[in-house]
């Protein structure tokens, strides 16, 4: 992934070679524990949805065919009420899955071995790259006023909108959302 991002990002986390950790190891361990504690067989998939939050999307988001620079909300016709655009989230999930399948297929395989329903959601806690520290170049620093997180609330809103009934207004692209009475 770092190699693919070098052409689109000057983030020091990409440019400077750093030690990497194999993330699928953690995912596989979580899978073992999930199966053990829920009584599933060794290779069984859960029916429960799995949301895979893929961080640092401000770095790798340019590799996607879908735009993730704006939050996934749409405004209800004739109002100022914004609702979560589930259809867009699912398109983005498919695009993120496709990217991960190219650069790190073991993550996709591990996630899909756990659950029958996996949603890949890009998130960025900072919304931008940290910068080398003014005093110690080996360290990275973040200016709090520059923090502009992206998509960080959408995983919870997506789960509430997609997997609960009538708790949250959503727009699934199939029909106009119901009117809101408050």
Q: Helix and strand string, N-terminal first?
A: HHHEHEEHHEEEHE
Going by helix content, strand content and strand pairing, the class is: alpha/beta
Q: In order across it, which strands form the biggest sheet?
A: 2-3-7
SS summary, helix count:
7
- Strand-residue proportion: 5-15%
Largest sheet: 3 strands, mixed
State the helicity in percent bands: 25-40%
- Name the overall outline: globular
Overall number of domains: 1
User: How many DSSP E strands?
Assistant: 7
Uncertain runs: none
Spatial extent as radius of gyration? 19 Å
Mean pLDDT: 83
Distance between the termini: 45 Å
Explain how this protein is built.
Helix 3 (23-38) runs parallel beside helix 6 and helix 5 (86-103) packs across helix 6. The protein has one domain (2-171). The radius of gyration is 19 Å and the shape is globular. The chain has helices spanning 2-5, 12-15, 23-38, 57-60, 86-103, 105-114, 154-163; strands at 50-54, 73-75, 82-85, 118-122, 131-132, 140-141, 170-171. A hairpin with a 6-residue loop joins strand 2 and strand 3. With 182 residues, the chain is of the alpha/beta class.
């Amino acid at each position: 992934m770092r190699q693919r991002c070098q052409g689109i990002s000057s983030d020091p986390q990409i440019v400077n070679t750093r030690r990497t950790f194999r993330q699928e190891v953690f995912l596989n361990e979580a899978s073992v524990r999930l199966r053990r504690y829920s009584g599933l067989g060794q290779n069984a998939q859960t029916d429960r949805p799995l949301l895979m939050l893929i961080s640092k999307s401000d770095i790798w988001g340019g590799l996607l065919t879908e735009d993730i620079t704006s939050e996934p909300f749409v405004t209800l016709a004739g109002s100022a009420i914004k609702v979560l655009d589930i259809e867009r989230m699912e398109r983005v999930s498919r695009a993120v899955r496709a990217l991960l399948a190219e650069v790190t297929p073991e993550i996709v395989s591990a996630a899909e071995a756990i659950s029958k329903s996996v949603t890949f959601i890009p998130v960025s806690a900072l919304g931008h790259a940290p910068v080398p520290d003014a005093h110690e170049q080996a360290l990275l620093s973040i200016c709090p006023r520059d923090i502009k997180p992206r998509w960080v609330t959408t995983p919870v809103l997506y789960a509430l909108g997609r997997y609960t009934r009538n708790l949250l207004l959503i727009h699934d692209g199939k029909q106009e959302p119901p009117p809101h009475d408050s």
